[in-house]
Every structure is written in structure tokens, then in C-alpha cells.
Amino acid sequence: MTAERRVVVHPDADTLAQAAAARLLVRLTDLQSTQPETHVVLTGGTVGIKTLAAVAASPLIDAVDWSGVHLWWGDERFLPDEDVDRNETQAREALVDELVSAGALPADHVHAMPPLGAAATPEESAATYAAELARFAPDGARAPAFDVLLFGMGPDGHVASLFPGHPALDVTGVATVGVHGSPKPPPERVSFTFDTIHGAREVWVVAAGAEKADAVARALGGDDVHGTPAAGATGTELTLWLVDAAAAGKTTA
Ligand SMILES: O=C(O)[C@H](O)[C@@H](O)[C@H](O)[C@H](O)COP(=O)(O)O
Question: Ranges for the Glucosamine/galactosamine-6-phosphate isomerase domain (predicted)?
């Protein structure tokens, strides 16, 4: 169960990304005063990548000791390595490569999902990633208890690559799942399962634009995850919705 849910409304997508970036950097700095390692999950999508670009441009970037940070992905588009549509590629370009090449972030702290080529199928990529997650999991768990798990949300209410009505929503007992027939291109993907999401300490959902307003309202209103997967995006300590005014336009929660 989520200990707390908070909704923060920003005026527009750019402000939202700036604020999410500042919040992430401050959160990591705070965590580093009490724990040596932090685990952060990155997301694809417009606002997610905009947030990473804002991290890269922030004067607070050097407040974080990146040598203690591990980066993960909650989902990936199953495409060849370096494909411009991979979430990893976009995150590397926006932030990650700069941190690695500056020597701030160890290259082996960047835990990307295996691309097409390294894995033959989404299932194979998912299984390899599950093994990587297990290497960093506390005893008895399948994945780290992520300090911050970032998600974008689609207009249909999907998070990660968990789409309304898809069988992946009901997969339990494993950390990751291969996805076929995604309504958002490309059709083949790899995703965290809800089991993995629900082990995160904090889940932050970033969403901007009027086309997200219905899904935001349904998710905050507690819709069934089969209709609105984002309703199930909850952390054990905090579930934080960072939205812009347009995306918040239909919610009463
Ligand atoms: O692979 C992806 O596309 C994502 O990881 C996906 O879950 C994304 O975060 C949402 O679709 C929101 O994307 P937008 O912010 O671009 O709407």
C-alpha cells in the first residue's frame, strides 16, 4: 500500500520538467546523506526526456555524487542498440552520456534493457534484465527498492509498457515482461511488471497536456488498472503525481 499520495500541479510542461529535475536532484542529495547507493528508474516519453535534459542543464547537477547512483529503465522499446527511438538512446543523449564521459557516473551503473540483436525476443531481453535486477535486489526481493521510479503516462493511461487491456498487466511472480502488439509504436517492448513497480519506495508520474486529462482523472479516481494502468503506479512510501494545469484539468481527487 502507498503511504502517501501527493499531486503537484505546475503551469506548463516546461515548468513541470524543470521542477521535476530540481526535485530529483534534491531528493538524491538528501538520500546520499544517509545511504551510499541510490537506485533511480528513468522513463521514456516527452516529459520524461525533457526532465532529464533539465537535470543536465541544472546548476544542482554537481550536488549529486553520481558515483553512488544506479540508473535503470522501467520499460524499453525493443529496437536495435542506439536506435534513436530507444528510451535508452534518448536518455543517453539528454543526460546519461554526459555524466559517464565526465567520469561522474560509472558506466556499469547504467543498467539498460538489452536491445534487439543482443536479445532475439522481448522475452529474452526481459529475462536478462530480470537477472540484472536480481543482482542488486535485497534478500528475498526480485529488484531493488527503487528510491525514485519515474514514469510518463500515455493518453490511454499506460505507464511503462503496461497498456490497457494487455496481458502484461496480470503478469506476476517475475520482475519484467515482454510486450507484443503495443498500441504505441514500436509494437514490441520490454516492461517492469506491477510487482516490480510496487516494490519502489517512491513512484513519480509526470504528465502534461490536455490529452492526458481524462487518464489523470481516472488514475487519481482509483480506476481499475486494466482500464487505466497508471492507477496502479504506486510506491511503498510515496506516490507523487507531477502534472501541468492542462493534465490536471479534469481531476477532482
Ligand atoms: O516508451 C515509451 O514511450 C514510454 O516509456 C511510455 O510509457 C511513455 O512514458 C508514455 O507514453 C508517455 O509519453 P509522452 O510523455 O511522450 O506522452
Answer: 11-241
Q: How far is residue 23's CA from residue 85's CA, in Å, rounded to a whole number?
A: 27
Among 46-55, 88-97, 218-227, 244-253, the range scoring the smallest mean pLDDT is 244-253
Distance 242 CA to ligand 1 centre (A): 15
CB distance 45 to 79 below 8 Å? no
Q: pLDDT tens, 5-43?
A: 999 999 999 999 999 999 999 999 999 999 999 999 999
Contacts of 134 by beta carbon, 8 Å cutoff, 6+ apart: 142, 143, 175
Ligand 1 centroid to residue 94 C-alpha, Å: 15
Q: Which atom of ligand 1 is nearest to the CA of 77?
A: 1
Q: Which ligand 1 atom sits nearest the alpha carbon of residue 47? A: 15
* Whether the Cβ atoms of residue 200 and residue 145 lie closer than 8 Å to each other: yes
Are the beta carbons of 53 and 91 closer than 8 angstroms?
no
Closest atom of ligand 1 to CA, residue 74: 5
Alpha carbon separation from 48 to 1, 138, 166 (Å, rounded): 25, 27, 23
Please give the grid coordinates belonging to residue 76: 524499453
Instruction: Please give the domain boundaries of the chain with CATH numbers for all domains.
Output: 11-223 (3.40.50.1360)
Ligand 1 binding site (Cβ under 6 Å of any ligand atom): 43-48, 75, 77, 87, 152-154, 158-160, 184
* CA–CA distance, 71 with 188 (Å, rounded to integer): 22
Would you place residue 93 in the very low, low, confident or very high pLDDT band (cuts 50, 70, 90)?
very high
